[in-house]
Amino acid sequence: MTHASQEGFTGAGRSILEEDEITLTSVGVDIGSSTSHLVFSRLELERQNTRYVIVKRTVLRESEILLTPYVDDGATIDADALGAFIDRQYRAAGLTRDEIDTGALILTGVAVLRSNARAIGELFAADAGKFVAVSAGDGMEATMAAHGSGAVAESGRSGGVVMNIDVGGGTTKVAICRAGVVLEVTSIDAGARLLAFDGAGVVTRIEAAGRTHATEAGVAAEVGSKLTEDDMAAVASVMARRIEEVVSLGEISAETKALLRLPPLAFRGKVDTVIFSGGVSEFIYGRERDGFGDLGPQLAAEVKARVAKLGAMVMVPAAGIRATVIGASQYTIQVSGSTIFISPLDAVPVRNVPVVTPEVDLTADVIDPAAVADGIVRGLRRLDLVGATSPVALAVHWGGSATFARLDGFCRGVVRAMQPVLDAGNPLVLVSDGDIGGLVGLHLREELGLASPVVSIDGIELREFDYVDVGELIPSSGAVPVVIKSLVFPGSG
Fold first, then answer.
1. What pTM was computed for the model?
2. CA–CA gap between residue 129 and residue 23 (Å, rounded)
3. What CATH number should be reported for the domain holding residue 175?
4. Which residue, 288, 304, 340, 475, could crosslink 282 as a Cys pair with Cβ 3.0–4.6 Å?
5. β-strand 350-356 against 393-396: which pairing, if any?
6. Between 196 and 120, where is the model more confident?
7. Which pLDDT band, with edges at 50, 70 and 90, does 422 fall under?
8. Is 180 left (phi over 0), alpha (psi -120 to 50) or beta?
9. How far is CA 75 from CA 24, 188, 212, in A?
10. For all residues of the chain together, what is the average pLDDT?
């Protein structure tokens, strides 16, 4: 039976026969330094044991690809124009914002470095209401692209190693996938729109990395200068050579290392299959031929020729230019299990909560509160979250039975370690991959008398450097929507 009141909710006694299926309407918005686009989807989630998993995803509408607009200074993204574009897409999809259950706004690539990236994210998060802005770091973007392109799924089906190469406007992301998981990723400053020019070849915008590539190619590229076809080919060749070094899985030069945004790939095995994604992949696969005032056609030809040297089979992706946003829509949305505890009910939604995964052993017969507290404090210290003034989510892997003594040891350790965070007026946010959310919440409230708000959910697996949004309770299912993402603003401040 479900326990619900104005004061709180627990689904600890809920029958797992109720609400075996949930349908969500989702929107994924991708704003990059080069292009922006949306996808509206219907996600069908099915209970498997006591977890909900996505079993079917139907694309309701994919927007056209918009060249990301800038104001007159050529450096600031035009938030008003983006807002108008998004409004048009909602109307074209026949959806209102109230009809969206959850979603993600992803800022990617060089767009993350824009001085107004945070303001744009907050603007669209406020407009959308049901989803929170994410400024995706390079690792998260590479991972989403590998999921969205189908590289991860292909590695699971084939049993081989699949390399996803996502060539975009500002960066190229590379992911190594095997057995249905992403093993590692890297990213390099090499992309088609690091140099942009008009129909006459006159440079209209150049990024710092674009200037680096041009200088190495012997091309004097500045805003207002005119590029010849040979100049464009030379710059694209230099970029492709840097990408080739990265994907060849060997030693890389100091010049290439200087352009890396993440550590180089450590994988040294055989790559069986290569899949391209990102905007430049549209040219690689011949789906696009007309240029967009950038190096897309030239870079595509160079990268395709150089990657062919790997000897791997090249597959067509499930999604090319839309791979990142498809990954966001499909793989960052989960729904918690129904054995949860939320008190009071207005403790949710919570947004942008950093995740700590403490190193604590929750499989032992006896759970020592001091050891639990020590592990949590060390986890908080690793992420500079000791004494945090905003909520922190503890993600734990529960093992063994949920006896009173074991729950008591765990809960006492949690409260001891998190007391400074709670004293600042924050809720205690706990996330487990097991089915103990409701029991833990009840123990904290009824046995320990914890007065702070408690959000204890389960059926969710998290990692450090994840951030979570926990949405409002879905009464019919006794679950809550959870968006998992990474928030990285390297250009802030």
1. 0.67
2. 19
3. 3.30.420.40
4. 288
5. parallel
6. 196
7. very high
8. left
9. 37, 21, 18
10. 81
